[in-house]
Amino acid sequence: MQPLDHYGLCASRGFLSPVEIDGTALPPDFDAVEDAAAMLPDYLATGRVRHWLARVPLPDVAGFAVSADEAELGVAMVRYGFLAQAWVWGEDEPAARLPANLAVPLVTIADRLGLKPIMTYQHYVLDNWFRLDKAGGITLGNIAIDQHFAGGRDESGFILVHVAIEAVAGRALAIAVDLVNAADTGDIAATDALLIALHDAIQAINAGLEAMATACDPHVYFHRVRPYLFGWPGEGLVYEGVAAFGGKPIALRGQTGSQSSIVPALDAALGVPHGASALSTFLAEMHSYRPPRHRAFIEDLQGSKVRPLAGCNGTLRDSYNACVGALAQFRTAHLKLAASYISAQAARAGAEGETGTGGTPFLTYLARHRDDSRAAFL
Question: 67-76, pLDDT tens digit by residue?
Answer without folding.
Answer: 999 999 999 9
